[in-house]
Amino acid sequence: MDRRHLLSVAVCLLGLSTISLAQRTSPPKITKQSPSYFVVLPKQPVSIECEASGTPAPGYYWKKDGAVLSMTGLYSMDGGNLVVRRPSELTNGIYRCFANNTYGTAMSEKIEFVIAFADGFKDSESTTFTFDEGQLATIPCNQKESVPAPSVFWTDDANPGNKIPLDNRVSIDPDFNLRFSNIRVSDTGNYQCNVKNDKLRVQLLSPIKEIVVRSVENVEGRPATLVYTPPASVEAFRTEKLRLKCIAEGFPTPTITWNKEGETLPEDRTSYESYGQELVISDVVQTDVGSYKCTAENGAGTPTSFTTTVTVQSTPYWQNKPEDTNVVINDRGVLDCEAEGIPVPRVTWLVNGVPSTDIAPNPRRTITEGVGGGRVEIRDAITEDSAVFMCVATNEHGEIFASGFLNVESRPAEMTDAPKRNEITIEGKGFELTCAGQGSPKPVITWTFQNNPISDTDPKYSIVEDGNTASTTSTLTVSGVSIADGGDYKCVIENGFGSVMATSTVTVRRGTTIIVGPGDEVFVEEGLEVVIECEVDHDETLEPTVTWYRDTGAGQEQLDLSLPGGRFRRARTGSDSLKVLNTVVEDTGTYECRAVTSEDEASASTQLVVQTAPSAPSAPIVTQRSDVSDTMVALSWTSGGDGNARITEYIISFETNFDDLGWQVIDTVSAPSTQASLDLSPWVTYHFRVVAVNDIGQSPPSPLSESYSTNPAALTEAPENVKLDATDPGKMRVTWPEVHPYDQNGPEFKYIIKWREPGDQAWMGNEEIIEYEVTEYEIDVGEMYKELEVQVLYSNSLGPGPASDWSGFTGEGTPTQAPQNVEVNAEDSSTVVITWDEVPDSTVNGQLQSFLVYYSMIEVQAQGQSPAECFPNTDCRVQNLTPFQSYEFQVAVRNGQHVGPKSTPVTVKMPQGESGPVYELTAFPLSDRIVVKWGKPASPNGVITGYHLNISSYDNNNRLGNQTVVPISDAETTTYEVNPAEPDTNYYIVVHAVNGYGLGKFDTVEPKTRPAGAPVKPIVAESQIAPGKKYINVTFVQKDDGPAANQFYVQYKEANKEDAELKTTPPLDLLKGSMITVPDLQPGTEYLVTVVAANDDGETIGDEQTTKTIGGATQAASPIFVQGWFIVVLIVIVALLCILLVLCILKSQRGGKYNVSDKEQQRKGDIESTPLKDEGGFEEFEPRKDNPDGELPRGSQGSLRDSEPGSSDTDSLKEYADGELGKFNEEGSFIGQYGDKKQRPTEDTDQSGAAYSTFV
């Protein structure tokens, strides 16, 4: 390149830089200044700091107390800093720094400049203060003013230079006076008030304050009195500390307590200083207003208190400061300012340091000032509108300042930092992309992924921006990345005058993860093997190395899974899971599976717990618990190891000198207790042992305790569970529990049985039994049903124990006479009342208990009905009988042991009763009519004479409409048509059967009629058209919704004849059928068939269908399932299956599974001799060759076909029934289980309902 070209390039670059410099302009901004309260040392030069930014660089000047300073004599400038060469009282004042350039003037906050000083004390000579012991004493400090505020404390000559100790008796009040609540003789001494000024590094001592305390023999108590309190009204300032102090005097020393009336003090912000005298509430908030009370008390009188009212005030503070704003030409700029305070401050504006009211008006500028906030707004901005605006918020407690400039500029966006071109990350982790740019106005940075905008409202993305008025930096963080997050990410920087972009390509590799982890804990029983699962998933480009570590308490160690014969190995070939063989308790610890790749790693750990049964406890120690009885002992032991499974309980057992008892468990104690209290039996020698139990099992038994023997003792318990049973007439059997030698309490044990008549003093008999295994004795007095008093006792060498007294009767005989003149009268359709003559006592042969009423339904054989029981002197009723049936009744006498003969049978016919509900009530609704159908009741309970219908409609709120009552007097009529019916209406239909009793139980049906209108278009599927050789069957299927068809007909004609006649079948009422046969057709011919649905509102024609009749020379091969030979084969197969099923059933009947099988076997000859109804029957059922005449074998009960008329199929079972018929199950006949369980209606004259009854 020649010189001319280089010169051209240089000129261009210089021009561009000049343009860039011209564009980068801004008004001044104060960036650093001295504190607003600036205390300095006198006569020592000091700088008041002031720095400002701005383009071009700003110039500086200062004002003191509102007047511009001239830089001569006392003052000079160092950059923007003001140098005060010799501070003095003349230099004290309010200073302010101003920085200006061509775009505006910035102003610092006010700086109060003060020189430090410390005056002495108001008194100059020593003072002596004399007090009597116990008095209140106040020693004034008398300090003068000091700047800055000094720290003040008191010292005495006892510890020169050290602060005197303070407590609730000795304190310093807020005026720095020293106060003694009650002075003591030991307080005598010289005291000085110390004023320390840290700025001047001086400490001033007051003149000596001598305190003389006169001793008093008896110091009288003096009630607490407040000697210092805060003002009655205190102002607290927001965010500052509220301090309230009370000081009290009195003897003894009072204590101070604080509370807030009506509220509790905020615990997190409340503290107490000066030993409770001073209440401090930090970070004051508005809710701290209220009344605060300090109370002083010392027990010597009534407590005294003082209340102060606190209000909360606040200096101004910012809610929203104005911010530096860059706008482009012709744009709009706004500076907002909001402040709070108590009271709310007034906001005013300074423009380039001049009050807004004193500047020339600008039509593009609007300035708003007022209480709480203000605004500066520039519209259609031009360069000359650039300025510095200072917001001033003022209330009675102070003022605050905040500045912001409005800079009118324009500069295209440019990129100063681009994201990495390529980024690699791991699935599940995150990555960051950073993009930075600058321009005026401040550019906006946006991000895209695969050209789609990214929003930080998506939880996956986080966009953090930082910067200043001209530049901005945006950091995009993508967290929890997946493979789908790989791709191109673009950073776009734009500000209206230009845009730039950069692309970063992100590659996401699948992270290494443990997809099947070992879990939190793995438990295994010692000696078994255990597998700790670990399955690793990783990116195909990353090959992980999987290593196992464990820590059993001695530090982590790596496991070698390749060691030959080792107990640690991989669970399977190619698996990363760990198998531990022959586990031992010492394997218990933490096991970690760690997968490491070149990019990342993953790990998962678990706690392996190897469990075993506990170790044996120590030998138990037996100690006697009572001096009174040696049978009360305490047992204690020490637990062994728990085998890594918590011990849940201890089992305590014993063995005795009675070998037949072996080891007996006496108690179980829940862990962690290791002791037990036991009650033993007298005259026994014991050994004890303890077994520990955990979830794995039981420990070995502990060693045996030393032997422990108890002494003989008297028997203390009377025999229990003694039974007196009447046996044969005149005899009574006495039984009692066996008493083992363990419970005999001593030697020479025996049973004693005594008996006598009630009221006698002397015993009729006395029997002693010395064999403890004998536990019964029969008393024979020879008189039936005689009452005896019986006494049973236990006795040993120390004498008999308490007696057990009982009474009972000797055996009864059988009643000899049946009740006479039995009468049975029907009380209603299901209840009868039975009466008979009184039975003579002499025939009862015992105590009359009740009368048994045997009854059975005459029409049903072998019912096995349990008898009803009636008691003497009560009405005898049998209830729940079946109406309109004949019953036979007999009565017998029952005493305590026997039942007498039955009375002569009495027969009664029950009156008609309430019929059961009708059978299978159904309704078939169309649009304008409903057909109701039913069957006769399964339980007519009389002669059915007709039916009774109630028909009513109801609305959507279930309100019934008008009711129509329909009586039907014909018992054979079981249908009724509701015609007409309202379309699209709910109906409620109730049907009763009627017999001689009246209305029976009802059944209901709730049909809904279909909507009105012409029927919906019929849709005829291929399966609804079945062609024959000379006919076609068409089946109509009513749709579930829409208006219903009442009838339908079929239109048809030949398909391939142009002049074919369209024919129509007669219509078919859909309540009478749903299939029409189209007759007289030609075989093998195609026909066009159309179904027409009709009702009273019109007709609807369905789609035309094409079908072909069967046969003809050109007929195509029929499907296999409609060919004749296939149908024949199918029928033969079904028949063979039916025969096989019958043979299986008969075989199961001939089996011996059931209790009745023996008698059923006796009947098989009859079964086998009975031919089937089919022609010829089967050989298996022909008569046996050894019995050609078909005679029944000996013992046969007769043919199943030869039952009496009206008998049921279950009669063969009833012959063997001991109880109710319905009790047969798997141990009885299977017929009832496999028969039709649905209750079918019966004829009025053939009712066979079982008579299950209740009795009163």
UniProtKB/TrEMBL annotation:
Signal peptide range: 1-22
Q: Where is the composition biased (Polar residues)?
A: 1196-1210, 1247-1256
User: Which parts of the sequence are annotated with region: Disordered?
Assistant: 1155-1256
Where in or outside the cell is it found? Cell membrane; Membrane
Q: Where is the Fibronectin type-III domain?
A: 616-713, 718-817, 818-913, 917-1013, 1014-1117
* GO term, biological process aspect, one: brain development
GO CC, sorted alphabetically, is:
axon; plasma membrane
Q: Which InterPro entries match?
A: FN3_dom (IPR003961), FN3_sf (IPR036116), Ig-like_dom (IPR007110), Ig-like_dom_sf (IPR036179), Ig-like_fold (IPR013783), Ig_I-set (IPR013098), Ig_sub (IPR003599), Ig_sub2 (IPR003598)
Q: What is this protein called?
A: Neuronal cell adhesion molecule-like isoform X4
Q: Which species does this protein come from?
A: Acanthaster planci (Crown-of-thorns starfish)
Cite the source lineage.
Answer: Eukaryota, Metazoa, Echinodermata, Eleutherozoa, Asterozoa
Which gene carries the instructions for this protein? Answer: LOC110986966
